[in-house]
């Protein structure tokens, strides 16, 4: 939905979750444990991440240290690592400024805490919500488009885990 709005308004599109996904891939490549708070926070401050905010883009969504990422960002096997990294305060603090920089100058941004934490002073905010079965189906379609597969049980677990994590 956000990408469609960005296209119609001819504004950049920013999925703030891409930063967490990119960090999770970089951490896995570096051999960091998912619960290594200090290691993940240090990596979040040091790694070079570039996000593609072109709403028309069909290719890479993020680059880490000059290497484009696409399928790796969406690998369902990273979901548990992703949830843990995103729950760590020092990691969130390190990525917050990067998210704000990427959205400077006007952007359509999506993400669970985008309107309250990342861009609390935004002129316009729209909150969209969908029940878990709808989000599950949307995630399934997203993975199918990328040629990735996983079980419905694992996807349902991911949706519930994100809801629980975000409600804290």
TrEMBL record:
<dbReference type="InterPro" id="IPR027417">
    <property type="entry name" value="P-loop_NTPase"/>
</dbReference>
<dbReference type="Pfam" id="PF02224">
    <property type="entry name" value="Cytidylate_kin"/>
</dbReference>
<feature type="domain" description="Cytidylate kinase">
    <location>
        <begin position="2"/>
        <end position="167"/>
    </location>
</feature>
<protein>
    <recommendedName>
        <fullName>(d)CMP kinase</fullName>
        <ecNumber>2.7.4.25</ecNumber>
    </recommendedName>
</protein>
<keyword id="KW-0418">Kinase</keyword>
<keyword id="KW-0067">ATP-binding</keyword>
<keyword id="KW-0808">Transferase</keyword>
<dbReference type="GO" id="GO:0036431">
    <property type="term" value="F:dCMP kinase activity"/>
</dbReference>
<keyword id="KW-0547">Nucleotide-binding</keyword>
<dbReference type="GO" id="GO:0036430">
    <property type="term" value="F:CMP kinase activity"/>
</dbReference>
<dbReference type="GO" id="GO:0005524">
    <property type="term" value="F:ATP binding"/>
</dbReference>
<dbReference type="InterPro" id="IPR011994">
    <property type="entry name" value="Cytidylate_kinase_dom"/>
</dbReference>
């Amino acid at each position: 939905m956000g990408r469609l709005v960005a296209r119609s308004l001819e504004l950049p599109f920013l999925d703030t979750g891409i930063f967490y996904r990119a960090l999770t891939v970089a951490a896995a490549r570096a051999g960091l444990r998912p619960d290594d708070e200090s290691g993940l926070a240090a990596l979040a401050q040091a790694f070079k991440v570039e996000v593609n905010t072109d709403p028309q883009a069909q290719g890479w969504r993020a680059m880490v240290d000059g290497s484009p990422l696409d399928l790796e960002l969406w690998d369902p096997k990273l979901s548990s690592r992703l949830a843990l990294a995103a729950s760590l305060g020092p990691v969130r603090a390190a990525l917050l400024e990067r998210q704000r920089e990427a959205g400077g100058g006007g952007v359509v941004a999506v993400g669970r805490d985008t309107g309250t934490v990342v861009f609390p002073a935004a002129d316009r905010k729209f909150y969209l919500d969908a029940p878990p079965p709808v989000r599950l189906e949307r995630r399934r379609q997203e993975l199918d488009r990328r040629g990735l597969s996983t079980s419905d049980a694992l996807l349902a677990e991911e949706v519930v885990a994100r809801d629980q994590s975000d409600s804290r």
